[in-house]
Each structure stands twice: as structure tokens, then as C-alpha cells.
Specification:
six-stranded mixed beta sheet, 24 helices, 14% strand, 20 strands, 723 residues
């Protein structure tokens, strides 16, 4: 027992010794090694000044700065030290009253506490800065803090570049482990938000010693604890600022979007959403006032339609439908359909724009003439394919193709808040029509011509052209090609944009058939009058039905035909035929990019087109009612979820527009749903493959042009038909 007690006592002594050594080590660390507590102890005698770094600059493909930094100053205050302030003089300089002074001081205390510096007046004007510098001794506790603000020398690409703003409590909670503090600025939208970790740089801190009256006496500990500000890294993009400016100009006074992509890299050349706004309006002291105005504007200028607008693709989808049918072996390039101007096989006749014989005698002719009957029939063949057990299985296979083409899912562009748009699931049709044994291709017929519940974003449409141009693959659309002094982490972030997306095994020979048909569209088809000087190109026009007004005008294309360098998608809301408005815009964008300039004739067309006012009447009426002199942007009919675009400043939930579903099921006066009849047998293939003679081609083109004036508004320029 004695031995046991002896051993026990020894163990206790060892434990006490270890604890003593640990305590001594901690004391040495705290008092000698660590400066954390020393700084805390000296905090009352130290003035901590934040040095904000320059944010990285964003360049276009020719190394032109899309945005830059300019110097600005903030007036900051430590409330606990703001004693004996000459408030009268300060209020006079800032052009505020004493009630506003008290209000701001309370806000600073709430945000930063009484003992930390907070922003009292951001982005001082040169006049204010000069007066404050001269009178700063009158305002104890106040000081001037330098920071850089964004400047946009080209006044363009607001939706793409985004803006920066001061962080708030909600932002700090979301990014609590990223080192942000009150008073910091961060990217809130666009590339500014997407690449915030690269662009932001690293704050610096300078510490100054103060006497008992709060006056600065010099650097604390000779700057031993100061840190240097590190500027953010620059981004180099695929954008072309001149093409971007042209796209925005052509969409002026219109609701719509234009997207241009380099098929070889996936780099976005231009992305315009109209109407837009001047990005310089969201910098400096005017930002808060401007953001409120933009958020309340019924035209919704802050909404990026290029990645969030959802539109039925209409006839621009037909080349993709043909790809599916060819790959499934349902048709051959020589397959023809005897169309007499309408499709009535499902008991609900669908019109075509052409009635001349032979316009759908083969696939190329059908594409060139955009024959609805042909592609409705091709769609039915895909859905009712006997290779699959029922229409549901056939539809799921068709949907698998369409998803692979980039529809109904997010492409992954390097911008926040991309919308995936919609390719309907079978559950929607089960809900509408019951058990899939009882529905078939007739129940979703217009999906074959890009209508029904199908929607796509302009970005998805442009990417589909890159996919066809590359004959079966694409690169994920993106803006940033490289980062200054690119690190391994930066390279890993950009890797997905540098990886080829091979999403289908459709043979190249099939793509070549589609490309020839799309080329015919530009030779004698619906876009025959739209030319790109010096280049052959491929295209498809589209006229999408719109339940809220006039049809949407769409145009997709890529050029040159044999070595594509640019793929374009354009949509103009409520503008009628695709060849009338969207087509000329797309043609001019291709010409500008490929030739680096416009011919004198094209410059005249661009000026004429930019002056045409196609703004929906609903927007004009709103501005009249609210005594606005001019409208800024468009009313979006088919969008949602604005709140995820704006992290800090968002509309109230009851003000956020709700997407209006596209009702494609006809109803009678009693409100009962009229289901399409059961399908008839598939028509026999028309063996006639004869081509139209030149005379018929010319007459056909004239017929299309002749119909265009029916789509004109009173405000349109009579010379636009020449475009």
C-alpha cells in the first residue's frame, strides 16, 4: 500500500510540473512573443487607418480597359472622439442639417461601435475635400480616408461588369471567414462579384500613436505592426468593346438582347441587354440615389436578359430538331414533306409562311424556307418513334438530346444568377393530360418549332450556334480568358472554361448537312437579304409567338461558314419577323467583328436601325403616367428571381415580377381544356426532291419582304426595310 501511495504521489507531482511549465510558456508567449494583446492594451492610444488597395482592372481582348480606378476620399469618424466638433461648419461643408448629422453619427455607432472608425460621408467631391482639409482641425475624431472607385471609360457593358458597393451586416454574415470589415467595398453583381477574390486585393493597415488629446504623434512602434496594401489582379477577357458598343446601340429604344461568342474558345465577345444603363451611374456618391431609381423603374434596366430572360426559341430551334431526327435515323437529308401551307395531321392546323409547291422537298429546302409543317412532322416522328415503348420514352430521349445541346440547364457562364430556362418534364404533361398511355406527340406538337413550354436564354441560343459551328462540341461560355500573374488557384478556377465539352456523338457528316441548310437560309431563304461583306455565313430566323403582345423577333447565326469565328443570337421583343429586326442586328455584329469595321452602307443601316423605336407601349404609358421624360429600359415579360441578382439592395417581395407561364393549351368558353385528338398515321415521305428554280426563289424572298410592313409600328422609320 505504501508503494502504491508513493507512486501515486509521484504522478501527481509530474502532472503539477507539466501544468506549471505550460502556464509559464503561455505567459512568455503572451508577454514576449505575441503582440496581439499589446496592441489591444495600447488600442486607446492607437489610431488605426485602413489603406484600401486598388481593385484589379478588367480588359477587353485588345487590352483596352473596360473599367479603371480613380481616387476618391471618404470622411470617417470615431464617434467616441468626436467631442467639441464645430458642427455648424461641418454641416455647411457637407450641405446637411444638424438632424442629419445626429442621424449619421448614430448609424456609424450602430455599424462600427463608438470606438471604431466608420464612414460619415463617402465619395467626397473635390470642393468638399478641399474645404475639409482646410478645416479638419475643427472636427476632432474626423479624418479623411483615401480609396479608389470604379470608372467606366466606354460607358458600356454594365450588366456584364457589375458594380461594387459597401458591405453591410448581411454581407459580413455570408462572408464571415473572408476578412471583410465594415467600410469595405465588394463586388455585388457581374464580373465584379464573380471574380471578387481576385479583383479585391488585400487591405493594408497603418497605426499611429496619439496623445491624451487624440492628436497624431507619429507612427506606432515605427511602423513595425503596419501592413502594406496589395492591389487586386487584372482580368483579361474575350470581349470586344467596339462590338459591345455596337450591340447596345443597335438595341437602343428596344427590348431585347444580343450575345456573340467565339466558337473556338467559348469566349463571349459581346453581351448586351436592352435597354440598359450607364455603369458610371453606380459609382461614387450618386450610386445610392441611382440604384433606387433603377430598381423602381418599370422598364427594369438592371435585369440582364442575356442570361435570365426566357424566350421561346421559335424557328431558331429547327436546326437542332433536324439534328435529332438525322441522328436517330428517322429521316435522311433527302426526306421531303408535301406541305400545302399548313399542318393538319393532329386536327389543329398550323400555318406555314410559304405556300409555293416544293418548299419542303428536302431538309435543306425546309430549313431555308423555315417550313413549320416539315419540322412538326419530324418532331412527331421522334416522339412516336417505334424504337421506344411509348410517347413518354420517345420524349425523354428527345429531351436528352436537347439538354445535351445546352437547353434547360445552366451553361455555367462566369456571371452570377444565370437562368436555366425551361425544357418541360414529362411530369408536366402527365399533370395536364393524365397517364402517358393517353398522350402522344400531338399533345406537345409545337415543341417541334420551339414553342409550347420550351424557353431558352439568348446565351443558350448563341451557344447552340457555337455547338453546330464546331460540329458537336462547345466550350463553356465565359468572359475571362486569363488572370494577371495567374496562380495555380486561378488556373484551377478557369480550367472548366478551357475544357472542350463534347456532349454528343452525332457524326460530323450530319452537322455538315445542317450547316448547308443554314447557309441556304442566307442565300435564297428567309435571311437572303442580310449580307456580311466578304463572308459566307449560316443562319436561322425565328418568329416566336408571345401571349402578351406581338411576336418576338429572333435570329441566330455563325460566320464564316467554313471556319466559324463568331456565333450570334439576337432577340427583339414584340418586333415581329426575325428577318425584319433581329436579323439585321446580327448581320452587323458579324460584319463588325470579322472585318473590324463597317462599310459606309452598313454604318448608315446601323444609324437607321438604332433610331427605330420598338419599345412596348406598356412602358411608354407608364412613363407618361409618372411624368418621366424618357424611358431607360424594357419591361421583361418572362423573367423571375430578381432578388438573387442583388444581394444588398433588392425590391420588396411584392414588387418582384413573377414569370408568366406560356399557356399553350387552348380553352373553350366554358374553361374546359380541349385536348388534341389522337394522332393520325404518319404521312408518307414525299420523294420529290426537285429544287426550286431561281425565279421561284426570288419570288419567295419578295413575298417575305412584302409582308414585313404589317409588323411595323407608327414610329418606325420607313427606310428600315432596306436593312
Amino acid at each position: 500500500m505504501a508503494l502504491y501511495n508513493s507512486n501515486r504521489g509521484g504522478i501527481i507531482q509530474i502532472i503539477i510540473g507539466v501544468i506549471f511549465v505550460i502556464l509559464i510558456g503561455q505567459l512568455i508567449s503572451l508577454q514576449v512573443v505575441s503582440n496581439k494583446y499589446k496592441l489591444a492594451a495600447d488600442n486607446n492610444a492607437i489610431f488605426r487607418k485602413i489603406i484600401y488597395p486598388d481593385r484589379g482592372i478588367i480588359y477587353d481582348r485588345k487590352k483596352r480597359a473596360l473599367l479603371e480606378n480613380t481616387i476618391s476620399y471618404d470622411l470617417v469618424v470615431i464617434p467616441n472622439e468626436a467631442k467639441g466638433v464645430d458642427t455648424t461648419t461641418l454641416c455647411d461643408i457637407l450641405k446637411i442639417d444638424k438632424e442629419e448629422y445626429k442621424k449619421r453619427m448614430i448609424e456609424v455607432i450602430i455599424k462600427n461601435s463608438r470606438v471604431k472608425a466608420g464612414t460619415f460621408e463617402p465619395f467626397l467631391s473635390p470642393e468638399m475635400y478641399a474645404q475639409l482639409t482646410e478645416n479638419l482641425y475643427r472636427f476632432p475624431g474626423f479624418s479623411l480616408s483615401e480609396r479608389s472607385i470604379r470608372n467606366y471609360p466606354y460607358n458600356t457593358a454594365a450588366h456584364v461588369l457589375g458594380y461594387v458597393a459597401e458591405v453591410d451586416v448581411n454581407f459580413l454574415q455570408k462572408h464571415e471567414d473572408e476578412g471583410y470589415e465594415m467600410g469595405d467595398y465588394a463586388g455585388m453583381t457581374g464580373l465584379e462579384k464573380q471574380y471578387e477574390p481576385i479583383l479585391m486585393g488585400q487591405r493594408g493597415v497603418k497605426r499611429f500613436l496619439r496623445d491624451n488629446k487624440g492628436k497624431i504623434q507619429g507612427a506606432y512602434e515605427r511602423g513595425e505592426y503596419d501592413t502594406v496594401a496589395i492591389a487586386g489582379k487584372n482580368l483579361y477577357t474575350s470581349m470586344d468593346v467596339e462590338v459591345q458598343q455596337l450591340a447596345e446601340k443597335l438595341l437602343q429604344n428596344k427590348v431585347g438582347s444580343a450575345v456573340a461568342i467565339n466558337p473556338k474558345t467559348g469566349g463571349v465577345i459581346a453581351m448586351a441587354s436592352s435597354p440598359g444603363y450607364n455603369p458610371n451611374l453606380l459609382t461614387g456618391s450618386q450610386r445610392r440615389k441611382t440604384i433606387g431609381r433603377l430598381l423602381l423603374d418599370t422598364a427594369r434596366p438592371i435585369y440582364n436578359r442575356a442570361i435570365k430572360g426566357q424566350y421561346p426559341p421559335g424557328s431558331t430551334f429547327k436546326p437542332l430538331g433536324a439534328l435529332i431526327a438525322l441522328d436517330e435515323g428517322l429521316i435522311t437529308p433527302s426526306y421531303g414533306y408535301n406541305c400545302f401551307g399548313l399542318y393538319g395531321a393532329c386536327g389543329d392546323p398550323r400555318k406555314c409562311e410559304h405556300h409555293n409547291a416544293g418548299h419542303a422537298a428536302n431538309l435543306q429546302l425546309a430549313l431555308a424556307n423555315s417550313c413549320n409543317s416539315y419540322f412538326l412532322q419530324v418532331f412527331r416522328m421522334a416522339i412516336d418513334n417505334p424504337k421506344y415503348r411509348n410517347a413518354k420514352a420517345g420524349y425523354l430521349k428527345w429531351k436528352e438530346y436537347v439538354n445535351a445541346f445546352g437547353f434547360g440547364r445552366k451553361l455555367g457562364v462566369d456571371l452570377p444568377s444565370e437562368n436555366k430556362a425551361s425544357i418541360p418534364d414529362t411530369a408536366q404533361y402527365n399533370k395536364d393530360f393524365g397517364n402517358p398511355r393517353y398522350w402522344n406527340s400531338c399533345y406537345m406538337l409545337t415543341l417541334g418549332i420551339g414553342q409550347d413550354r420550351m424557353t431558352a436564354t439568348p446565351l443558350q441560343l448563341a451557344n447552340s450556334m457555337a455547338f453546330i459551328a464546331n460540329e458537336g462540341y462547345y466550350y463553356t461560355p465565359h468572359f475571362v480568358d486569363s488572370v494577371e500573374e495567374e496562380s495555380e488557384q486561378d488556373a484551377a478556377m478557369l480550367e472548366k472554361y478551357r475544357t472542350k465539352q463534347k456532349v454528343t456523338n452525332i457524326p460530323s457528316s450530319i452537322f455538315k448537312v445542317i450547316k448547308e441548310g443554314m447557309h441556304d437560309v442566307t442565300v435564297y431563304g428567309t435571311a437572303a437579304f442580310i449580307k456580311v461583306p466578304g463572308h459566307e455565313y449560316c443562319a436561322k430566323t425565328g418568329t416566336a409567338q408571345n401571349p402578351h403582345g406581338k411576336n418576338h423577333s429572333l435570329f441566330v447565326c455563325f460566320a464564316p461558314k467554313d471556319n466559324p469565328k463568331i456565333a450570334v443570337a439576337v432577340i427583339v421583343e414584340n418586333a415581329g419577323y426575325g428577318a425584319t429586326w433581329a436579323g439585321p442586328i446580327g448581320g452587323l455584329l458579324m460584319e463588325k467583328y470579322l472585318n473590324d469595321t463597317l462599310t459606309p452602307e452598313s454604318k448608315l443601316k446601323a444609324e437607321t436601325l438604332s433610331q427605330v423605336d420598338l419599345m412596348p407601349q406598356a412602358i411608354k404609358d407608364w412613363y407618361v403616367r409618372n411624368n418621366k421624360s424618357a424611358y431607360l429600359t424594357p419591361l421583361e415579360y418572362n423573367n423571375d428571381e430578381l432578388s438573387d441578382v442583388w444581394d444588398m439592395e433588392m425590391l420588396a417581395s411584392d414588387a418582384i415580377p413573377v414569370r408568366i407561364p406560356k399557356d399553350t393549351i387552348k380553352k373553350d368558353t366554358t374553361g374546359k381544356t380541349n385536348l388534341p385528338p389522337a394522332p393520325t398515321s404518319l404521312p408518307k415521305i414525299n420523294k420529290d426532291t426537285a429544287l426550286l428554280n431561281n425565279k421561284k426563289k426570288i419570288n419567295k424572298t419578295k413575298t417575305v419582304i412584302k409582308k414585313q410592313p404589317k409588323q411595323k409600328k407608327k414610329t418606325q422609320n420607313p427606310n428600315v426595310n432596306q436593312l
